Amino acid sequence: MEILDLRHFSSVDLRPLLEDETQVWARLLSWDYSGSADMILRYVDGKILPGYAAIERGRIFGYAFFVYEGSKGVIGDLFVANGSRNPNAPEIETRLLTHVIETLQQSPGVHRIEAQLLVHETGVVARPFLEQGFQRHPRLFMSTPLNRPARPSPSLHADVEIRPWSDQDYQAAAAAITAAYRGHVDSQINDQYRTLSGSLRFLNNIVRFPGCGLFDAGSSFVAVHKNSRTVVGLILCSRVRHDVGHVTQVCVLPEHRCRGIGEALLAASAGNLRQRSFSLLSLTVTEANLRAVELYKQLGFTTNRVFDAFVWEG
Ligand SMILES: CC(C)(COP(=O)(O)OP(=O)(O)OC[C@H]1O[C@@H](n2cnc3c(N)ncnc32)[C@H](O)[C@@H]1OP(=O)(O)O)[C@@H](O)C(=O)NCCC(=O)NCCS
User: Rounded to an integer, what distance in angstroms lies between the CA atom of residue 78 and that of residue 115?
Assistant: First the structure.
């Protein structure tokens, strides 16, 4: 088995592996990965996707890629064919990851590396990360069916209203995200949350680019304090399968918490998706974020998988 630069290959070489991967995402996460797979194949054809391929007898049977975002490297994906049934998969995954991590750590100007590997069970690919000094944060992939009646929504205080997301909400939503995640474990995992410009970039990625599903304005809402007209909370959803919604962001300003706003935002999204005959709503949450996990459990979400987020700061 050889590990080679992904830029030596074309979409024809990688397509069979991505077809396998698309099936795995569908089975494990009810997630249609074909849009992401197409995007990856376009980048591979353009020879602009940095990463590595595991090759045996001329065939790619594993790959990992990463992207540079300023001084940060983000590991985008790691996948090995027949991962759960292939006894050599752990070794191949470790070798691919070791190459990716070394490349990023040696890239001039890269001071931070982030990775979230949703289809890999917690702990399974942790070794090369921990050996290189990464922090590990277990995260839950949770979902709730939408084809059963909703529980009654909490009544909100009269001073707060929930209204549909609009493109004019960008700036206020970015300010709310920055304030909501100050000192929060998720801003250790994703450093974009730490600044207003980072939160704007995060929003831009979620709303304008199809990396994490296709943004779904219909099931995205903001909570507004009526008197001051300030955005005090928001929920953003994407469509990750024709009938599956995924919460990409939900937060409430600290001074407005514990008043039912978080629950009302989730109820608004679920209600909209239910009306449009979606069958499932999913989300990810950091295991240590006990308060959010508790809220999701109360609303009927159950845990489908536990995966890991990894962070390195050089
Ligand atoms: C998670 C979050 C959105 C909840 O918003 P909220 O408006 O406070 O939530 P609600 O008032 O609707 O609370 C509903 C439930 O959350 C849980 N909860 C709220 N505050 C809690 C606290 N201090 N301790 C434990 N559980 C708490 C409870 O289960 C509560 O139900 P109850 O009121 O019947 O006891 C909010 O805490 C937040 O923005 N946190 C920071 C960002 C974040 O973690 N987002 C989620 C990322 S996945």
Answer: 10
Assess contact for 224 and 232: CB atoms under 8 A.
yes
Whether 151 and 188 share a structural domain: yes
**Unique residue bearing structure tokens 């995060």:** 202
Could you identify the atom of ligand 1 that is nearest to the CA of residue 286? 48
Same domain, 13 and 57: yes
- The rounded Å distance from CA 284 to ligand 1 centre is 15
Task: Look up residue 143 and give its two tokens.
Answer: 């979902």
Confidence of residue 267 (pLDDT cuts 50, 70, 90): very high
The DSSP result for 43-95, as a single string, is: HHHTT---EEEEEETTEEEEEEEEEEETTEEEEEEEEETTTTT-TTHHHHHHH
The closest residue, in CA terms, to atom 22 on ligand 1 is 291
Q: Are 210 and 184 in the same domain?
A: yes
- pLDDT given for residue 32 in this prediction: 97
Residue with tokens 């944060």: 137
Taking Cα atoms as reference points, which of 314, 310, 165, 305 lies closest to residue 248? 165
Range(s) of the domain holding residue 164: 144-304
For ligand 1, atom 15, name the residue with the nearest CA. 295
- Asked if 281 contacts 270 with a C-beta cutoff of 8 angstroms, the reply is yes
Q: Which atom of ligand 1 is nearest to the CA of 284?
A: 48
pTM for the whole thing?
A: 0.95
Which of 291, 294, 297, 298 to mutate for ligand 1's pocket (most ligand atoms within 8 Å of CB)? 291
pLDDT value at position 88? 87
Co-location of 148 and 43 in the same domain: no
Average model confidence (pLDDT) across the chain: 95
